Amino acid sequence: MPIEELNFVRLLHLHPRDNIAVLAQDGKKGASAKLLETELILPCDLPMGHKLAIGPIGKGTEILKYGAPIGTATCEIMPGDHVHLHNIKSQYTVIEDMEAGQT
Amino acid sequence: MSALMTGWLRNDGRKGIRNTVLIAYLVECAHHVCKKIAREFPETDVQVIGFSGCFPSPYGQDMMEALCTHPNVGAVQLVSLGCENFRKADLVRAIEASGRTVNLITIQQTGGTRSAVDAGRAWVRDTLAALAQIPRVPMEPSELVIGTICGGSDATSGLTGNPAAGRAFDRLVTEGATCIFEETGELIGCEHVMAARASTPALRNELIATVKKAEHFYAAMGYGSFSQGNATGGLSTIEEKSLGAYAKSGDSEICGILRPAERAATGGLYLLDVVPDGAPKFGFPNINDTAEIIELISCGAHAVIFVTGRGSVVGSAISPVLKVCANPDTYARMSEDMDVNAGRILTGDATLSEVGDEIYNKLVALGTGEMTASEDLGHTEFVLTYKNPTQADPGCHTAT
Known about the structure:
The structure holds 2 protein chains of 2 kinds. Chain A is mainly β. Chain A has one domain: Roll (Archaeosine Trna-guanine Transglycosylase, Chain: A, domain 4). In chain A, 5% of the residues lie in helices and 32% in strands. Chain A has one helix at residues 3-7, and strands at 8-9, 11-12, 20-23, 32-35, 38-41, 51-53, 62-65, 68-73, 82-83, 88-89. The longest helix of chain A is centred in the N-terminal third of the chain and has 5 residues, at 3-7. Chain B is an alpha/beta fold. Chain B has 14 helices and 14 strands. Chain B has helices at 31-39, 58-68, 88-97, 107-110, 113-131, 157-175, 191-195, 201-221, 228-232, 238-246, 289-298, 328-334, 352-365, 373-376; strands at residues 6-9, 15-16, 20-25, 46-50, 73-80, 101-106, 137-138, 145-150, 178-181, 254-258, 268-272, 303-308, 321-325, 340-341. In chain B, the strands form 3 sheets. Chain B has a 7-stranded parallel beta sheet, with helices on both faces. A 4-stranded parallel beta sheet of chain B has the order 4-3-5-6, with helices on both faces. A 3-stranded antiparallel beta sheet of chain B has the order 2-1-7, with no helix packed on it. In chain B, a hairpin with a 5-residue loop joins strand 1 and strand 2. Classes of the chains: A mainly beta, B alpha/beta. Chain A binds chain B through residues 10, 12, 14, 22-25, 46-51, 63, 65-66, 68-71, 83-85, 88-93, 95, 97-99, and chain B through 155-156, 159, 163, 188-190, 193, 226, 228, 231-240, 243-244, 246-247, 345-348.
C-alpha cells in the first residue's frame, strides 16, 4: 500500500449541520483525516463508513448525520473520537453491542 | 439540455418514454405460452408480465390494470388459460378504455399451446408494425414519474448512491416531476425526521402511522432490521441505518402517500406505502427487489433509480431501471451492469451534486432514445404476488 494512503484518509461530511464525518476509505491508527480547517487523527484502525467526531460533543447531545439525529452521546466525546456503539445511544430502540465483552 | 425528450401521448394525457407490447398471463398456467410468444421478438419491444395466482385478488387485479395501462405500454396481448378466477373481461375493458389495442387469447378455446402461441405471435407482429407508425410528441422532464429503490446495499449505499439519488430527486421535484420513494420498513427510526417534511399536519400523522404499521408488521414476522453486519460497517443505531435509505428521498417537501397501483394526482414527492393494512399474515410485504420495482411502476413510474452497493443486475419489464453503483470496487468489477458510478464520491473524484446531476441527466436521456445498461442487456424481470388476500372458494370455475 502506498505510504500516503496509510497517512491520510478522506472524510465525507454529509450535511453542513453534522457533528460527525464518515471515513470514505479504510484508515490506520494515527492516520490524519482532514476536513476543511480541522485535522483529526484516527484513534484506532477504522474501516470505511465509520464515524469520527469533528468537534467536542457533550454527553446527551444529539449526533447528527445527514443533518438528522442518529442517537445521543452517552459520554463526553472529543474531536477525532470514534463515534459508535460505545458512546452513542439510539433514541429509538436499544441496539445491543454484541461485540462488547469480546474485545 | 442537449437532445429534446419525446414520448408517446396516451389518451389520459400521460406520455410514455417506451412503447412496449406486453404479453400478460392471467394465471401461471398461461405463462409458458406468453414466453413462447415473446421469444420471437426483442426484449425492448415485447415483454412478459402476469399474475400467477388462480384465486381472485383485488390487489392482483388492480396491479395488472395499472401495469397494462402504464404510459410506457403501447398494446397488450392477454393470455388466459380459461378456468382461472382472474376477472379478465374487466381488464380487457380497462385496457380498451385507455385507448390501447388489446387481444385476449384463451388457450382452452384456441385449441391448446401451439395454436395459442401462433395466434399471439401473429397479433404481436401486426401490432408492432402499427405501433411503429405512431409519431412521438415533445415531452418535458416535468412530465416524468420516477421511482427510487435500493437493493444489494452495503456500507457505501447510504454514503454515496442514496444521497446522490436524493439530489436527483430534488432537481426533478423542483421542475415539477413526480418522484416516489418507498421501503417503509427501512424508514423505522426516522419517521419523525420524515414527518417534519410533510406538506400538511394531516400528512405528518399519516407518514408516522405508515412507518409504525411497517414496524408492527416486521415485528410480528420476527424480522429485525439492525444486524451485527450493520454495526461492523460503521452504523451505530437503527435511525442511522434508516436515514441512509431515507436519503434517497432528497430534501423536498413530501406531498402525499401512494398505495400500489395508485397514481399521483400532481407532481411532487410521494412515499409509496408497500405494507398491507390489517393484521400481518404473510412474510415480507414484497418478496424481492423486483416486486418493489413493479409496485413503483404500477404508480406510473417511467423509470426507476436503483442504488446498489454489492451489485444488483436486475432491470424490469415496462420501465427502464437506472443502476447507480455506490461502491467503487463493485463498479470496477461490474461496470457492464451499471449506469452511474457513485463510488467516485468515495474516491474523491466527484461530489454528491455532480453525481446527482449525472443521475438526472441520464433519466432525461431515457426520453431521447438512450437505454439503460439493464435494458441493453435484455433484463425484463417481473414479479407480482398475492397481497391483502381475500378468502374465496377454492377450486375451478367455468370460464366467463
